[in-house]
Amino acid sequence: MGLLDSWTLGEHSFGGVSHPTYRKGAGPGVVVIHEIPGMTPEVIGFGEEVVAAGYTVVMPRLFGSPGAAMGPVTVAKALRQVCVSNEFTKLAMGVTTPVASWLRSLARELHDDVGGPGVGAIGMCFTGGFALAMMVDTSVVAPVVAQPSAPFAVSPRRSADLNLSPPDLAVVKKRAAGGCQVLGLRYRSDRAVGKRFETLTRELGDAFIKVEFKGAKHSTVTTHRQQEGVDRVLAFFEEKLHTPA
Predict the structure, then answer these.
(1) From the centroid of its chain, how far is CA 205?
(2) If you placed Cys at 25, which of 51, 58, 144, 202 could pair as Cys (CB 3.0 to 4.6 Å)?
(3) Which strands form 29-32's sheet, in the order they lie side by side?
(4) What angle do CA 81, 87, 91 make, to 5 degrees?
């Protein structure tokens, strides 16, 4: 049996862009955005944990082959897809990744379908900041940024950039000031994350909740999984999504 056989395959379209989606579960909605190289067994396993905790999970496939394991070949293929796509920003600073509009639409659709106070969203690695960009839409009330790594941290300034345009950052700050918290996870010495947690702390203040682990590993809830990190994510969703609006 394939890892995704129990998930319902669908498709979401917005602004002339379509991506496959995988859905499973019942309860409040959570969008799980895979990391590079794609929907690996570890990402799917994390999605299953969120389902088991009582949520309707939707996992969009933005790149990569579903179910393919992490490895040099799959990473290289995914990077080629990302680098030629105009849906993603790779090095540009002070801009919001274009795919954020599509993800916001997906979140609105999920919220309209399942109801509740809003939906959760978690991005990982290259997509880590995507959940922050989704926060611009009021349907997203529980954003989680796991080791955000875009734009690529090839310079100190890029390593501090949040992958948001100034207008979107202003909306995120306004929502944070109004009580919408952001949960972040990282290994403290992860060079791919760079200085982004410092930027988030400066811009969002106490609304940014940091969960940090010792070391220079990377994938906090998948490949280099920390059970404390998974538990904190699920507790965050419980607090934000099971509370009446």
Answers:
(1) 20
(2) 51
(3) 8-14, 17-24, 56-60, 29-32, 119-124, 140-146, 182-187, 208-213
(4) 80
Q: Which numeric CATH code is attached to 8-241?
A: 3.40.50.1820
d(CA 44, CA 66) in angstroms, rounded, equals 9
Give me the phi and psi of 3, to 5 degrees please: -65, -25
Question: What is the pTM (predicted TM-score) of this model?
Answer: 0.96
Query: 162 is written with which tokens?
Result: 């949040």
Token pair for 177: 């000031």
- CA nearest neighbour of 164 among 145, 181, 139: 145
Type of residue numbered 41: P
Q: Where are the domains of the chain?
A: 8-241
Q: Is residue 164 within 8 Å of residue 74, measured between CB atoms?
A: no
pLDDT tens digit sequence for 92-117: 999 999 999 999 999 999 999 999 99
Q: Tell me the three state secondary structure of residue 43.
A: helix
Give the per-residue pLDDT at 242.
87
Closest CA to 30 of 9, 4, 56, 10: 56
Q: Yes or no: say if 166 and 136 are a contact pair by the CB < 8 Å rule.
A: no
Residue with tokens 């960009």: 133
Q: Rounded to 5 degrees, what angle do the CA atoms 153, 154, 160 make?
A: 40
CA quadruple 116, 19, 25, 100: dihedral, nearest 10 = -40
